What we know:
Chain B is mainly alpha-helical. Chain B is built from twelve helices and no strands.
Amino acid sequence: xxxxxxxxxxxxxxxxxxxxxxxxxxxxxxxxxxxxxxxxxxxxxxxxxxxxxxxxxxxxxxxxxxxxxxxxxxxxxxxxxxxxxxxxxxxxxxxxxxxxxxxxxxxxxxxxxxxxxxxxxxxxxxxxxxxxxxxxxxxxxxxxxxxxxxxxxxxxxxxxxxxxxxxxxxxxxxxxxxxxxxxxxxxxxxxxxxxxxxxxxxxxxxxxxxxxxxxxxxxxxxxxxxxxxxxxxxxxxxxxxxxxxxxxxxxxxxxxxxxxxxxxxxxxxxxxxxxxxxxxxxxxxxxxxxxxxxxxxxxxxxxxxxxxxxxxxxxxxxxx
Amino acid sequence: xxxxxxxxxxxxxxxxxxxxxxxxxxxxxxxxxxxxxxxxxxxxxxxxxxxxxxxxxxxxxxxxxxxxxxxxxxxxxxxxxxxxxxxxxxxxxxxxxxxxxxxxxxxxxxxxxxxxxxxxxxxxxxxxxxxxxxxxxxxxxxxxxxxxxxxxxxxxxxxxxxxxxxxxxxxxxxxxxxxxxxxxxxxxxxxxxxxxxxxxxxxxxxxxxxxxxxxxxxxxxxxxxxxxxxxxxxxxxxxxxxxxxxxxxxxxxxxxxxxxxxxxxxxxxxxxxxxxxxxxxxxxxxxxxxxxxxxxxxxxxxxxx
Amino acid sequence: xxxxxxxxxxxxxxxxxxxxxxxxxxxxxxxxxxxxxxxxxxxxxxxxxxxxxxxxxxxxxxxxxxxxxxxxxxxxxxxxxxxxxxxxxxxxxxxxxxxxxxxxxxxxxxxxxxxxxxxxxxxxxxxxxxxxxxxxxxxxxxxxxxxxxxxxxxxxxxxxxxxxxxxxxxxxxxxxxxxxxxxxxxxxxxxxxxxxxxxxxxxxxxxxxxxxxxxxxxxxxxxxxxxxxxxxxxxxxxxxxxxxxxxxxxxxxxxxxxxxxxxxxxxxxxxxxxxxxxxxxxxxxxxxxxxxxxxxxxxxxxxxxxxxxxxxxxxxxxxxxxxxxxxxxxxxxxxxxxxxxxxxxxxxxxxxxxxxxxxxxxxxxxxxxxxxxxxxxxxxxxxxxxxxxxxxxxxxxxxxxxxxxxxxxxxxxxxxxxxxxxxxxxxxxxxxxxxxxxxxxxxxxxxxxxxxxxxxxxxxxxxxxxxxxxxxxxxxxxxxxxxxxxxxxxxxxxxxxxxxxxxxxxxxxxxxxxxxxxxxxxxxxxxxxxxxxxxxxxxxxxxxxxxxxxxxxxxxxxxxxxxxxxxxxxxxxxxxxxxxxxxxxxxxxxxxxxxxxxxxxxxxxxxxxxxxxxxxxxxxxxxxxxxxxxxxxxxxxxxxxxxxxxxxxxxxxxxxxxxxxxxxxxxxxxxxxxxxxxxxx
Lengths: 320, 305, 681
């Protein structure tokens, strides 16, 4: 085996990882489910609209029809308490939930990884100051940050770039959606802290190892050491953390929905649908099960994929 | 090491004051006031209230007064719950949150650590997959869903446990389990990942090569290194437990500090918000300090200058 | 490799199990319905366990304005009168009888001589004088003091104003604007204080120099008048409350206020203990210091957990207090409250608590679910200061384009609201309104059926009105479109509290279908919403809930009264104010109602708000709890409540509860009211 490899031209780390990933059936399964989910939430609403005429906000205007109906051919997932098609709502809610997870996690990765790595590597006074700043941010209640952000930047005073994002990514530019985008950034700004701590912890254990010392000795710049040598070596835990961050951000969004601070109606997220559904658990269980199972399946897949990526990317596993 | 601990301890108080200042700014930025209600107040009454609480003073005077009081350890009275001091509210309600929080986290540690370690030792076994699937299930269910589900099953189908309110050990079971679920899942996954990493490392192989028996390798060497990720999670987790307890306190109607804090934010009860934030920030910083100190003990590769 | 595949199967199996568990839940959860909702057996002690909503702000009755507190105060404190159990009309409490002056601007109360505080100290008229002076004192910062502003000089005292003394006498309003002196009719014993009260109303002005200068700079005439005058601060002793003797109290209003008697049951007017307040200062409400005078006194108080009150043996009517104890639990989460009720841990809970999706389920329990009209209404205010809602045609179009019948069916527990005043709560007013409506119809020569339908759902007229207003509605396929309507600036604004969301979503769907206008929704956290709404920062619609402060239509009609009014629609119309002023000086009750009905009709023509629904009480009680009635404000006089242990006597079919006689309650009520009846004869 090792002889074969040595005769081939050397494979890059990423190509190698990708090959390993494809070998992991569960990761592939997770990836497939995720791709399916992404495609479904992107095109699904249009298909449902075309096939049945329901969109996420189609509500019967007759008061008698505006009520919870169990799953049927017309409404495969049943309806919510206002008589709206749950399938259409779950698909639309998926857009928001996935965006919450992905955008906020990207924000947290971007800030958290570089921040943590710099703090951990430089050490000493700078590390001290940087980590104290993280501590300070930790201690400010994020509920307060969210309320202030939504109140100060919501409505007419929404910054233009957020409006632009919500128009171009969200598909419809109005006040309701720009609020959601504000929420993404608020959540991202809160969740990078953990990432920074984790990466710093990781870098602390790595920075005294031989390969770093060697790089230092050969005159690699500090910037180079951090971003070329240290960060790639923290990828394993970072990916595990990122896969934990996505669900935790989605859950935080759900928690805010539970408190009434999440997405703006008539939009929904999986979290807000579940928060609504839980109230009716004993009488209209499908209202929890439809969004709940979809959300759980997605998070499951994310975690499977994260594990697979970890196994594939971790340079240490190649020794076995 | 000792000087490191002293330095970090000394810095906690000024940092808490920075946190209080930032929070104060946020509260002032948020619209609404503690006295805004559904019904409009006559101008005279609003003026009376402003006068009583010094809100008619310029902001820097108000800030100065607030800070000088806080430095003296006096957070004043809650403006919503009149006649109750902030210190009194915190000491009265902290035990409720602490009880479910600590019990929940201990339960989570117990489950998470053992499940994670075993899963790592028996990687790719059915126990590994079973426990990790369960952990993922734990991660994918919000606790405001899990709580009512448990109530439905244990209070209304089986009639074993009370559905809500504080009182007795029976009343603790459901909230603690609800709280523990998600943390157990996190910890199990982190322990497994950390342990796998360590089990493959050179020093474990050296230890094995030295002929140490498996138990010693596991408990004296591997577990120590494998715990590092769990540790760095514990500091933030204890902070996040506050948010976690909010849902549990709401669902189970428990008079804990978490719920009171959220309410104080919604009520714009400034002294109470600042008091709780100051208290919690100190708590979190102390936890983080302990975590950092533990790093040093657990992982000999980390050094503090 | 082998191992890998099988474990992979294991994982898939785990996944499959998750799905089936989830589906299994569906199967089991819909349980068979029984006669009662959950566990139903009376508590072993003679105690009522009640959830009253959020944690009380304080136990000082003069400070908070919330309903949860109001119910607790009804157990702990008593005032001159108490709310009647069924209709919330005033019944004797500490006052055993009263007289009202013909102009309804003076009240004389005859107090009971056997009433005592919980520490045994007797209650006299001086306690009332103290309580009211304290309530209006600026230092107390009572948020409800505004309700009593009709009491003479109370507003000036509360606003830290001063009398103006010049040349040895106080300036009066006549100095500013000559008005004929009103003759004083004798009422009760003539005293020095009454002479002061009946003397011409004195001029008052801000005590604070900055504010005073501001007022004076804007009023040359007043400035000249005040020149060189001396300012005398208004004190508590100047307000219109007088102890004629130890057991007779006189209250003087600045103008006639026919609704005022009912207000005396409000928590602001309940007695507070001078001796305890003076001894303990702000700590007087602590359980170890507190002194109360209601049917119950504090036994145990654990904030956010429980407030337990027990029967007070010193209470003057203690023999007619049936419960030994009431346990008040503060719980806010509605589903948690329902869970506690279902598990039999509580016996009853506050109003508006059953979530709308649960109504159909809960309604089956006919012996427990209380669905009665409330003196509470939901409106949408429209910002009339900004286009397009400055145009009454647009406002009307949105009113007519809304099927309120459908909204009520959708909400399941509300009735459509077609005017300003909730129908059902004020039967006499409804009669007057019908009469006035008929008169106006004849004046205008409108056909009877058209008149009947004038504010009801009529999408066609709505579209026509919108088109006339410059926003043409066009038909596109089977849908309507109104492309020029500026929806991007507008929003339906509401706060995040329960049920508001579903109402807003329903209205959005209605207007989308009927007018082709999709107004975006905007929800805000409660405290963020209120200033946004009240200061008219919103554009479009803003949701507005109002529950009456007292049982008179005026509490609803006054919402649009005066500049800067509660309604927050930017609406101010002197003509409307005049109509209401005229009504309030009318002494004949029926005529007054007719004048008010005219004002209401005028307001509906101007339409600064869209009336939506009359709320329903929407709460539950176990059938063994008796003497507890779904009155319009869910303000429950606790001494009527008792636990019935004989299942044969339990409440049945509570939809009819108001008409079913209960010998014990009826007798108790008759005994109480008899003192006032005797005095009237």
